[in-house]
Specification:
- Strands 1-2 form a two-stranded antiparallel ribbon. Strands 3-4 form a two-stranded parallel ribbon.
- The chain has three domains: 88 residues, Orthogonal Bundle (Fumarase C, Chain B, domain 1), CATH 1.10.275.10; 238 residues, Fumarase C, Chain A, domain 2, CATH 1.20.200; 59 residues, Fumarase/aspartase (C-terminal domain) (Ribonucleotide Reductase Protein R1, domain 1, Orthogonal Bundle), CATH 1.10.40.30.
- Helices cover 62% and strands 5% of the residues.
- It is mainly alpha-helical.
């Protein structure tokens, strides 16, 4: 018999029972549900709403259920619909009437809101941990390649010389923003909905601040209707994860390009690539491709929950049962993508010679040529035009700018001197780009240190808590 069956004269149809049940996916909330119930029971006991004997029996019973579940000794049933009613039914079976008193001053609406917030809060920490590990890999890789010259691109056309370290640190900064977005989400969600009841609170003299403190929340949710119907934190999480996956996907696309024969800037370790069933020469970047592909999956979960929530009146509606599967799957997806992507990068072989060779073609020092003339007194727009004519000449002659003779350069401007070759050397072009955030070694050293400090600060905070 269902716990809510008093008002009904018929058993639930079997098909409806299957359709309505969520235990197949919300069973993963068991830790949060049990911890929340223990905090609720403690508050009820402290407030004199439960007797000390009932309170102690509930604590003992819930502790035993938790141990049995983690030992794999409990099977839940769809007859009890969800994780909350399964645990309550099991508790009542074990300790009798005291178990029936646990739900005093509580609704499934505030119970599920509590469990879900606690779960999201916990999993945010897991994702941040994976991001910090990825940042560490990027920093170590960047340290080894601060002097490795490669072409930077715009429009996928060779543009200006950068270092491989500089390129990696661009992604390191993206992932650092992902960390701070997740931290912001965790801070905003950290208010406790327990005690909101179905939507209008309760007539019992409960202490919502006590349960909030017991469960490590900053405070109770301020409005009981908002507390049971809000899923902003789930939407914000899915948005943050979607942006994170955007960064991973962009990086994956570059890895895919870089390990192609057309680029050959890197070579993936055999453990992080696959072969072809018919072409024996193939070494496919399947890890990067799957990360790129799974990005759409996470985007879809965000759109799914946005669509679910957009037309719901206050307060709770059964539609909101559809909030969990998108979040669960998005977290599962991100939590498998991040460590495998970090391992792929960590074991990836960089080919500096090929990067330098590519940088030597495509006139990526053209801006430096124009800057050279500007520093000699020519207005930049005139220097830009002169350099453009030189590039056109080089294209016809099959030369690079640094291969032109001084006489050829001076056909366009008498300002060119012997020092132009030093200015056009790619290593010097990169080294001179020492403005804040640039690719010069001094600047990439600072960027790497900043990210390492960022990681260390958060790891220390985690250790302290």
């Amino acid at each position: 018999m269902k716990l809510w069956s008093g008002r009904f004269g018929k058993d639930t149809d079997a098909l409806v029972n299957t359709f309505n049940a969520s235990i197949d996916f919300d069973r993963r909330l068991y830790r949060e549900d049990i911890r929340g119930s223990m905090a609720h029971a403690k508050m009820l006991t402290d407030c004199g709403i439960l007797s000390p004997e009932d309170g102690e029996a509930i604590q003992r019973g819930l502790s035993g259920i938790l141990s049995d579940f983690e030992a794999g000794n409990i099977d839940f049933t769809a007859d009890n619909e969800d994780i909350h009613m399964n645990i309550e039914a099991l508790l009542t079976e074990r300790i009798g009437d005291a178990g029936k008193r646990l739900h005093t001053a509580r609704s499934r609406n505030d119970q599920v809101a509590l469990d879900f917030r606690m779960y999201v809060r916990r999993e945010i920490g897991v994702v941040i941990g994976h991001l910090l590990s990825l940042e560490t890999v990027l920093c170590e890789k960047a340290k080894a390649h601060q002097a490795t010259v490669m072409p930077g691109y715009t429009h996928l056309q060779r543009a200006q010389p950068v270092s491989f370290a500089h390129h990696l640190m661009a992604y390191a900064n993206m992932f650092a923003r992902d960390v701070t977005r997740l931290e912001d989400c965790r801070e905003r969600l950290n208010k406790c909905p327990l005690g909101c009841g179905a939507l209008a609170g309760t007539t019992y003299p409960i202490d919502r601040w006590k349960t909030a403190e017991e469960l490590d929340f900053d405070a109770p949710v301020e409005n009981s209707m908002d507390g049971v119907s809000d899923r902003d934190y789930a939407l914000e999480l899915l948005s943050d994860l979607s942006i994170l996956m955007t960064h991973l996907s962009r990086f994956a696309e570059e890895v895919i390009l870089w390990c192609s024969w057309e680029f050959k800037f890197v070579e993936l370790d055999d453990a992080y690539a696959t072969g072809s069933s018919i072409m024996p020469q193939k070494k496919n970047p399947d890890v990067a491709e799957l990360v790129r592909g799974k990005t759409g999956r996470v985007y879809g979960h965000l759109m799914s929950l946005l669509t679910t929530m957009k037309g719901l009146p206050l307060a709770y509606n059964k539609d909101m049962q559809e909030d969990k599967e998108p979040v669960f799957d998005a977290l599962d997806t991100v939590e498998i993508c991040l460590p495998v992507f970090a391992a792929m990068l960590d074991t990836m072989k960089v080919l500096p010679g090929n990067m330098r060779q590519a940088a030597g073609r495509g006139f990526i020092n053209a801006t430096d040529c124009a800057d050279y003339l500007t520093k000699k007194g020519m207005p930049f727009r005139d220097a830009y035009t002169v350099t453009g004519r030189l590039v056109a000449y080089c294209t016809r002659e099959g030369k690079s700018l640094e291969e032109l003779s001084l006489e050829e350069l001076r056909t366009e401007s008498e300002l060119f001197g012997d020092d132009v070759y030093k200015a056009l050397r790619l290593e010097n072009c990169m080294a001179l780009r020492n403005s804040y955030g640039g690719p010069a070694i001094r600047e990439t050293t600072r960027q790497i240190q900043d990210i390492e400090d960022f990681v260390a600060e958060r790891q220390q905070e985690d250790a302290d808590t």
